[in-house]
From TrEMBL:
Organism expressing this protein natively: Rhinolophus ferrumequinum (Greater horseshoe bat)
Annotated TM spans: 44-66, 129-147, 219-240, 264-283, 295-315, 439-460, 488-509, 549-569, 590-613
Molecular functions per Gene Ontology: mechanosensitive monoatomic ion channel activity; voltage-gated calcium channel activity
UniProt topology in membrane: Multi-pass membrane protein
Keyword vocabulary terms for this entry: Membrane, Transmembrane, Transmembrane helix
The organism's taxonomic lineage, starting at the top: Eukaryota, Metazoa, Chordata, Craniata, Vertebrata
All copies of domain TMC, residue ranges: 368-483
A GO CC annotation given for this chain: plasma membrane
Protein name: Transmembrane channel-like protein
Domain of life: Eukaryota
Location(s), subcellular: Membrane
Amino acid sequence: MMMAKKWVKFLRDFENFKAACVPWENKIKAIESQFGSSVASYFLFLRWMYGVNMVLFILTFSLVMLPEYLWGLPYGTIPRKTVPRAEEDSAANFGVLYDFNGLAQYSVLFYGYYNNQRTIGVLNFRLPLSYFLVGLACIGYSFLVVLKAMTQNIGDDGGDDNTFNFSWKVFTSWDFLIGNPETADNKFNSITMNFKEAILEERAGEIEENVHLIRFLRFLANFFVFLTLAASGYLIFWAVKRSQEFAQQDPDTLGWWEKNEMNMVMSLLGMFCPTLFDLFAELEDYHPLIALKWLLGRIFALLLGNLYVFILALMDEIYNKIEEEKLVKANITLWEANMIKAYNSSVTGNGTAAPFFVHPADVPRGPCWETMVGQEFVRLTVSDVLTTYVTILVGDFLRACFVRFCNYCWCWDLEYGYPSYTEFDISGNVLALIFNQGMIWMGSFFAPSLPGINILRLYVSMYFQGWAVMCCNVPEARVFKSSKGNTFYLGMLLLILFLSTMPVLYMIVCLPPSFDCGPFSGKNRMFEVIGETLEHDFPSWMAMVLRQLSNPALMLAVALVMVLTIYYLNATAKGQKAANLDLKKKMKQLQLLVASNFHGCAGASEVLLALLFKNNDLCEGPENKHFAIPLSP
């Protein structure tokens, strides 16, 4: 008896230890017990994204930022690592640093600070090669981890057997290892919420609908959604044109709004348009899970359109910078010729000259479009985070305070009437997380600090949004059970990953790097660092083999084989799924046949024994004495 108690105590302590090792596990369970699995799935998704970004940050910090900081040339030694003389007075001001200019721009946070030395430090660390390979490794790892997560969760979405659903919930939901009263209350609330989800799912399939009215309302809702998307696209286009006009003006004459108008317009559209889409979804009367997927798809289209308009604006600015580089390069060549001429004129008759030194801050330099791209994505990320937090404070916290303290002296019930407490916006929060991650993937090649900024944002969001949802929000009126695998979220994340990496790969392959900033300066294309490494660091025979392996014809053949393999595996999976569904149907038919003839059996085990041993006497009841099920030999 004592051994059994010790064993139970050991199991309880071990479960508590495992829960303590998983980040934010208790917080997420508390949220799930109050708001259901749909809200908890967002925080599980956020925690998973935190782990992905942690790996990206470790790669960029350990293989790019830290080597440059330890072994690279220090600040002030060369022009690309020095603030220009005209900007020195304001380089450390808060407003300049908040805009990621000044000292922040000329640091390891951005692409332009890194030198193009082939090797640095006593270890001869190849920084340009490492920078290029880490950028590709981050993209490859992201694809791998998203596809792996989707593969693991395929079986969680369509393979659930809902037979005796409520019976299983009644008899198997309680955890008998719980010894904490607060944990027991949370578990009780969680079981209650699961029953609400299951009951609403059952009722949703029994409602009779007016087909023609539903079709008309859904057409009307989609028409309103199309008008909203068109208006949003026009507003983004208008903001881009204005930002290009502001870029040609003196920055000192512009106010805060003019400098941040593009970022603020995108953030405000991402904040208010999901609310409109949610109102339009009320007309469609879909099942809550289907309505959420439609809402996510519409918000995804909105954010993706905004992002690509933003990218097109950046591409126009990049082309302008590349054209400007040609003029600046000619001016720098003329300046160098004048410096040489002045130096030669200072040579005395005996061949000696006065000391001649030009400070790096005084050397003219060309535009660095890579740093400009990184700055834009960092600014957009920071402004979006601030907008989200201010929205939570104003729209959730202050609204909840008003409802809570003014309800006693108001004309109507504020808690159950207008304005009431806010519901947790699952669709808006999930899409904001996916959209922000797409910006991280797109901008991290030009701003290695972006994964670290995103880790800080996700860490703060877990606590801040967890506090907000527990203190300021109420459970949704439309409760449903969300899939544990979140395959739908992962599918959208995979799509945004693909669409985010395409512009980056285009910039790497097709655009020439800036001539006086970044680790690839002096090359025609960034990927030439691979050929340089093959030429200097590998034997000639190995370099020839690697070049043959990178032949476009061979790569095309490999891609074709991969596509055919994926098609074969997909077809095999569909066949196995169809076979499983057919087997389930046959088992249910057999179950009904057994239930209609073995009325005297007390349980499924006795029916199974009767079938195996072909002995109907195992079951009680005279109706079973003369019945036999033919079994295969």
